[in-house]
Amino acid sequence: MSHVEHYSIHLDEQGRLDLPSQLRQRLGLQTGDRLIVTVDDEGGFRVVPARELARRLRGLYRDR
Description:
The protein is α+β, with helices and mostly antiparallel strands. It has helices at residues 21-27, 50-57; strands at residues 10-11, 17-18, 35-39, 45-49.
């Protein structure tokens, strides 16, 4: 069974998300890191560090 963690994130007046330090540490994020946001049909979203997505995709098309 998977474990789900929940974090409260603040959206400021300029539209920026303020990520709690625990979440940044959990994801290994540092200032200036690029994030990829995927939105589903139900209005939910998933945030993945760009370097993690690149790591997952590395070699995907190697055979072509």
